[in-house]
Design a protein that fits this description.
single chain; 505 residues; alpha+beta; Beta-Lactamase; Helix Hairpins; 4 domains; elongated; binds adenosine-5'-diphosphate
């Protein structure tokens, strides 16, 4: 109960209340003790008396320069009677000459202690008995110094507190305690309920169920709920991906293995004896083993990308050079397939290099995969075109083909692991395994870039004639990579040489 949010909140409110009320009470007591309003009134009276004395009006009956102490004492006593103010007079050399109440009160000090004070305001002096005096200093022209003083009014603070202040104060306090209790219940409910639901959802998630939690409560709790929902979505996706991976890997290994086993068996038991048939069987075994090898290499790449253990080099790369080398690598294959393979550099002035920072081998792997797919899906007589342009701080590379294109609903899915469209599953011995684009996307993203696929659009008139709006004119893969901030500076440094190595056709 003491650890509950509800109790802690209430305790906090009570402590804040107690602190605020004590501070208010203390301020009130200090105010009453200092009593500035009464002091101000008295100071005003002293100022008037001081003005009267300074002007030496008729009734003052004091001649300037009078120094007879008896006469002076009599004068100040009479004035005290008339004005109700204690008057003390000092001579020019500081000696005490007269004091209207010297007989029954502790004396004012012998030495004037106010010589250097600002004379234009009332001050406080405490005498030997502890009485506080409010006094005003009046220097006269002949050197005498008069002091008009009155005892400070004391306010009966304790009585005032007990009778006037504490009762309403206590009523307010009890009201505030009740309000704070209600607030604590309300606020703790507001915070704790969504947290409890979150805890329940977390328990359900650990048991394999992934419920969504509602976003409610304060912003901070909402943020936790949002993060939780995001986490469960990812967890679900990763579980699904793991299941799919196992299923796909076993399926994709089973087919070539069966084929290898079958042909090897036929070779062993002498079912195939013709040299051409033996050659064909060996070729099938080789192709399938090659496919399995590629798949295992791809899986290794993906595993390293997932684990973050793939080390990406970070060196300046001239994309012109890198793309030219990739295109060159596929030139013979294109020629054999009767495909027109072109590399076009957009509106890029002169021979200026287009520099990005990254890993040349990995980027070559991305473009090799795109070119490999483009050539694979483009029929003889078609075209594959690679183009490079710069858009503000980005380098954009298109790999466009004139193949069958990709159905709109599959455009995003082709980047998923093991995703293959039906057309490509039937692809014979050049069949892939559906990992190339997944790897390409990971690599591009690791370079701070993006990759997307689109279908090439027809001219509007062609669309109407053929009725094929979405597919049929081939597709285009666009890779965007952030340009290095100072291309000229980078260009002056040595750009790395591209070694076309990955995915040799
Ligand atoms: P694969 O090893 O099967 O080529 P990818 O990940 O490279 O795997 O490609 C995934 C799927 O995307 C392919 O199976 C194919 O269906 C589709 N695809 C990729 N490139 C093209 C293209 N240029 N034209 C049509 N479909 C393509």
């Amino acid at each position: 109960m003491f650890a509950s949010l509800h109790f802690r909140l209430w305790l906090t409110y009570l402590l804040i209340l107690a602190a605020a009320m004590s501070a208010a009470l203390l301020a009130m007591i200090v105010y009453l003790l200092r009593n500035p309003a009464v002091d101000r009134q008295e100071a005003q009276r002293l100022r008037l008396v001081a003005a009267l004395i300074a002007r030496r009006t008729q009734w003052l009956e004091v001649q300037p320069g009078i120094n007879n102490p008896e006469r002076l004492n009599e004068v100040v006593r009479r004035m005290d009677n008339a004005l109700g103010v204690r008057l003390v007079v000092y001579g020019a050399s500081g000696q005490l000459l007269a004091d209207s109440r010297a007989e029954f009160l502790p004396p004012f000090p012998q030495q004037p202690f106010f010589e250097r004070l600002n004379l234009n305001r009332a001050r406080i002096w405490r005498d030997a008995e502890g009485t506080q005096w409010l006094y005003w200093v009046i220097p006269l022209e002949d050197g005498q110094i008069w002091v008009a003083a009155t005892p400070r009014q004391r306010v009966p603070v304790l009585n005032l507190l007990r009778d006037e202040i504490l009762p309403p104060f206590l009523r307010a306090l009890s009201f505030a305690v009740v309000i704070s209790l209600l607030m604590a219940v309300f606020v703790s409910h507001w915070i704790a309920s969504p947290l409890q639901r979150l805890a329940q959802a977390a328990r359900a998630a650990s048991a394999g169920d992934f419920p969504k939690v509602d976003l409610e409560g304060p912003n901070e709790v909402r943020a936790v709920a949002e993060a939780f929902n995001e986490m469960t979505t990812r967890l679900q996706a990763s579980q699904r991906a793991q299941r799919d991976l196992v299923a796909n890997v076993s399926h994709d290994l089973k087919t070539p293995l069966t084929s290898i086993q079958g042909f090897a068996q036929a070779l062993l038991d002498g079912t195939v004896q013709e040299p051409t048939a033996i050659q064909q069987a060996a070729q099938v075994i080789y192709d399938e083993a090659d496919r399995m090898h590629r798949m295992v290499m791809d899986l290794l790449d993906l595993a390293r990308l997932d684990a973050g253990t793939m080390n990406f080099e970070r060196a300046p790369i001239d994309l012109r050079e890198l793309l030219a080398a990739s295109v060159k690598k596929y030139a013979i294959q294109a020629l054999q397939s009767q495909i027109d393979l072109k590399f076009e550099i957009g509106d890029l002035a002169g021979e200026a290099p287009i520099i990005v920072v990254g890993d040349a081998d990995r980027l070559t792997q991305v473009f090799s995969n795109l070119l490999d797919n483009a050539l694979k899906f483009t029929p003889p007589g078609g075209q594959v075109q690679v183009s490079l342009r710069s858009q503000e701080s980005w380098a954009e590379i298109d790999v466009a083909d004139s193949g069958p294109g990709i159905a709109p609903q599959e455009l995003e899915r082709i980047f998923e692991r093991f995703y293959q469209t039906d057309k490509s599953r039937r692809g014979g011995n050049r069949r892939g395994v559906g990992l190339g684009l997944a790897i390409a996307r990971e690599i591009v993203q690791a370079h701070g870039g993006t990759i997307r696929a689109d279908n090439r659009r027809m001219a509007a008139s062609d669309e109407l004639e053929s009725g094929e709006a979405e597919t049929g004119r081939g597709c285009v893969f666009t890779v965007r990579l952030p340009l290095s901030p100072a291309p000229q500076e980078m260009a002056r440094r040595k750009t790395i040489t591209v070694h076309p190595s990955e995915k040799a056709p």
